[in-house]
Amino acid sequence: MILTGAQRPLTTIGIVLLLLGLATLAAAAQSASGDGLGMTCSDGYGCHTDHPVLFTVMTFGYRISMPLLVAGTIFLAGSQTLSALRGTDADRTDTMSTQEQTRSASQHVVAARLWTLAAILVLGSAALGIWSASPAGQSVMLVSSVNRSSPEYILNQLSYVLVPAGTLSGFLVVGLALVVTRAKPSVQHPRHESDKQDRTMWDGKSHDPFKRPDSTTQLPFDRE
């Protein structure tokens, strides 16, 4: 398959993007906890932060973390898709060999992995979205004595990135899982020996194809 050469770069880039996305989320969680990295606002003095450069970097990272997570997930899922589709467009015969049976089993394994990943992403994102939108999740943000370092508060803040990123990634992985599940090998009948001889290229040495027919051979138009 032509695209199999892209499998390793897709895996590498996907891992790098996922690590960058998770790092930006960790930095955003640290900033949301209010440990000297957030903005402090008051009526008389406005808003300020003790680390403006670090605050800017973390805020920017938080905003681009969603495309990083989505791209990283799709790159890894795409790498698995290419590994499952490898060799499906090769020459096939009516009888499946041991290698072809192994490839078919590997395709089913990859399809199961993709369906599982898609279910985790979609259902997990839906659960987090429902909790963060519920009164219980909103009360974590609206109470007067909010604990900015509590896991519930940080998770609610991160839900604005995790929910859309997980949902979008899940639906895209569903598409890849469908491709792997429905992919069928192109079956081609074996060529007969006569077909192979007819398609043999002239080696440039034998001049038999260019010789005049033997005079003893009766041509069709010589028949009475």
TrEMBL record:
Q: Where is the composition biased (Polar residues)?
A: 215-224
User: Which residue positions does the secretion signal occupy?
Assistant: 1-28
Q: Which UniProt keywords apply?
A: Membrane, Signal, Transmembrane, Transmembrane helix
Q: Which segments carry the region annotation Disordered?
A: 185-224
* Coiled-coil ranges (or none): none
Q: Is the keyword Nucleus in the record?
A: no
Renumbered to this chain, the Basic and acidic residues biased-composition regions fall at 190-214
Name the record gives this protein: Uncharacterized protein
Originating organism:
Herbiconiux ginsengi
